[in-house]
Design a protein that fits this description.
The complex is a heterodimer.
Chain A: H1 2-25, E1 30-37, H2 44-65, E2 72-79, H3 84-94, H4 110-123, E3 127-128, E4 146-147, H5 153-167, E5 176-182, H6 185-188, H7 191-201, E6 204-210, H8 218-228, E7 232-236, H9 240-251, E8 259-261, H10 268-271, E9 282-285, H11 295-304, H12 318-341, H13 348-356, E10 359-360, H14 362-367, E11 377-378, E12 391-395, E13 400-402, H15 411-429
Parallel strand pairs in A: 1-2, 3-4, 5-6, 5-7, 7-8, 8-9
Antiparallel strand pairs in A: 9-12, 10-11, 12-13
Chain B: H1 13-16, H2 23-43, H3 46-72, H4 80-97, H5 103-122, H6 130-150, E1 162-164, E2 168-171, E3 174-177, H7 183-205, H8 208-218, H9 220-225, H10 230-257, E4 259-261, H11 267-280, H12 285-308, H13 315-336, H14 341-354
Antiparallel strand pairs in B: 1-4, 2-3
Classes of the chains: A alpha/beta, B mainly alpha.
Amino acid sequence: MKFKKFGLAAVGAAMLAGSLVLPGLAAAQEQFVPLLVYRTGPYAPNGIPIADGFNDYMQLINTRDGGINGIKYAWEECETQYNNDRGVECYERLKGNGPTGASVVNPYSTGITYALIDRATNDKVPVLSMGYGRADASDGRVFPYVFTMPITYWAGADVMVQYAKKESGGSLKGKKIALVYHDSAYGKEPIATLERLAKEEGYQFSTYPVAHPGLEQKATWLQIGRQLRPDWVFMWGWGVMNSTAIKEAAAVGFPMEKFIGIWWSGAEADVTPAGAAAKGYKSLNITGVGTSAPIFADIEKMHADGNGIADKANIGTVLYNRALVNAFLYTEAIRVAQGEFGVKSLTGEQVQWGMEHLNVTQAAIDKAGMTGLLSPVKITCADHEGGGSALVQQWDGAKWQAITDFISPNRDALRPAYEESAAQYAKEKGITPRSCS
Amino acid sequence: MFYREAGQFKTSYSADQAIFPIRQDRLGLLLLGLVAVFAVPALANNYFLETIFVPFLVFAMAALGLNLLTGYCGQLSLGTGGFMACGAFFSFKLATAFPELHIVVVFLLAGLGTAGVGVLFGLPSLRIKGFYLAVATLAAQFFLVWMFNKFNWWTNYSPSGVISAPPREIIPGFFVTGNEASPAAKYVFLLIFVAVLALIAKNLVRSRTGRSWMAIRDMDIAAEIIGIRPLWAKLSAFAVSSFYIGISGALWAFVYTGSVEALAFQIDRSFQVLFMVIIGGLGSILGSFLGAAFIVLLPILLNNAPAALGIPLKVELISHLEFMIFGALIIFFLIVEPHGLARLWQIGKEKLRLWPFPY
């Protein structure tokens, strides 16, 4: 039993050390946020700016404002390598830290989000899956602890179609639209919405799955560029698939202006490997582009004072900004919850209340110095998406430029689809949807 | 000292053929069993139960299945991930189509279904051997994952292709899947389930069937000459192995993660299980458990170590260190004992039996 003994001893030592460390953290009034990051592994180029954005925003709240009404943020990173099992392990490792446990969890991976929905709901920790994860989780009656604000994939598909329609002179009748997608849960999300819109708008819709990780796309693009010759190509890609798609699209001569990626196909790391070929490529974005918002002056100052955490090269990149907006949204939710439960360390359950009563108006956005980084969001018990919107950005060869204002998706048609899908989930899982009236 | 067998006489054939002929082993196992069933759920917190013991048991089951095929019957397979996916999706379809079916029955039926698939993909093993067979089983891996990804019927037409385990009770009031399942209930259920199946596997490999597998492994032509039918031996190995692997896939989806997409069973999963079997010990039931422990637990332990020791390191550095140490340890163990951890344990035991005069 040598090995088992050794293993048990090691586990025992780890437990002992863990229990010794915890009480020290519990002393001060703090708001704990677990950060599930991927600074290593195949998606590290995307994961690093995201993690940097979170670190910088919470550091800014702590150093500039002395915390949220005096309650400072405490956070800990855990490396997931974008791996679902590791994501679950990280969540379980960190969920109990801090004086009141995790306030909110931001998985930044559709797979990890799926794996955490059950667990977090059980633990009463809100999951803020900002522009990823389950679209039907927008139905707060079935998913009380999951928030999809400001916008879901289905709504993103709607925005893309709206944009394409406007650019095509107001009608898509008889046009051809192709979807190139990562053949996974994530990539399949928009298909149902795009099929429905195909009926309504009268365009011809075809799908092209790309097997993970997406380095093999020659055949796909030959079919698209030589055979189908669509008017628009939409892409749900991730990681190395994005730059490969751009290169292959350029190789078959597909015009970049007609090629629109989702917001996970539109970061600097997605276009720079494709070099000059990427010029003119478009993508959606749920956050504003660049460093013109007033908050960046504060971030500059924080870095000048030596308190910054991020790599300075990442400041103002697409994914850094997204993480800033993400951290801003839960910070506002914590403020709302403090108004209800008092200024102290709040539990996940209390933060969930704050999220459900979150109303980020344009005035609140301006006050926080986030002007132009996001559009107003209002969450209710039933609606966890909150009416956010997305803009279209274009790569000019050196940086991303916003080329439209925030475009609102047509939610009258989306909402019934969310509710139908959520109802099916509730039936399978034996969940009785709570009443929101 | 620990293994002084003086005075332990075998007076019957059944005593002589016992799985654990030495009394100390029996006592040790009983003690381990009692600790695992009673002390661990009582003492370990949810983190240990949910993220260390539960995946360890699920992977031990998968490694056990592959070990029956690769370790005992000598058929190299890279289709483990695909067979796990079979188990997961079969049990999802069964559980949602027949909600009144007991969860254990669902798992067993899913295992049987996977056994059928395993036999189908085992047919080429009658003609091709060794590395060529590994390539043929690769077809199973890619085909099965593609199939579950491609056809929405398997996921009950979920728009994203993700299946989510419905809540089920093992006995009324004790949920083992779904939201309400407590980590302790999951752990104890898994422990008993895996222990029973491991016991069956242990007896199976000591039986006529198991011996025919080993004969095929050691020299298939000789085995054929002494009257073992390769068709029967190889396909039964594929069937039993797939049965275990299928159940482990079902447990993965239902008890461990709770929701799963076909991509969770990619080729990496097959390699992971194969490495468990190689490092744990080919042709050893104990080795399956040791290998699973090594591959599943060690990286988590390494990742947690700096924080537990109070050394502040950046997460990316910890992650890189984890890879380096883990890789070095794999090489170390394979050099020190190419036959795996189980063999290391066996040597240790032999030395202890002869102690203090080992030779």
